[in-house]
């Protein structure tokens, strides 16, 4: 059974096709491919997130900056994001998405201050 979730409103993740094992029992993996991220356990997809977007803008680049037994941190870069309180100003921003697993539960955390305007 595949679940699709929206995180932070409109959601879009673009990630590399690179399997990463993490979790206390080493049975779960995070699969990063194209514009999606999937959590797979025992060949079964538990969760697929199609993307993470802010104001309908998805990240342009991404890289894994931490891969530990209980968490993975993915740095996402967003290009040409408009600032809502200024006219004709587009900026590039980076933000870290942290995925942790504790007691069999996956936690996603991202707190972009620049997206709160």
Key phrases:
single chain, mainly beta, four-stranded antiparallel sheet
Give structural notes.
The protein has strands at 11-12, 18-21, 28-33, 36-41, 44-49, 51-54, 57-58, 61-67, 71-82, 90-102, 105-109. The chain has one domain. A four-stranded antiparallel β-sheet has the order 2-3-4-5, with no helix packed on it. The chain is an all-beta fold. It is 0% helix and 57% strand. The protein is elongated and about 50 Å long. Mean pLDDT is 72; it is low at 1-19. 18% of the residues are buried. It is built from no helices and eleven strands.
Write the layout of secondary structure elements.
Elements: E1 11-12, E2 18-21, E3 28-33, E4 36-41, E5 44-49, E6 51-54, E7 57-58, E8 61-67, E9 71-82, E10 90-102, E11 105-109
Antiparallel strand pairs: 1-6, 2-3, 3-4, 4-5, 6-7, 8-9, 9-10, 10-11
């Amino acid at each position: 059974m595949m679940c699709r979730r929206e995180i932070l409103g409109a959601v879009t993740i673009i990630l590399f096709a690179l399997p990463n094992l993490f979790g206390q029992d080493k049975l779960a993996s995070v699969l990063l491919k194209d514009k999606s991220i999937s959590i797979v356990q025992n060949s079964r997809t538990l969760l697929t997130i199609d993307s993470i977007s802010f104001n309908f803008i998805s990240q342009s680049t991404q890289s894994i900056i931490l891969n530990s037994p209980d968490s993975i941190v993915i740095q996402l870069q967003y290009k040409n994001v408009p600032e809502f309180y200024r006219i004709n100003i587009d900026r590039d921003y980076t933000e870290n998405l942290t995925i942790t697993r504790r007691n069999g539960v996956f936690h996603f955390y991202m707190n972009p201050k620049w997206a709160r305007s």
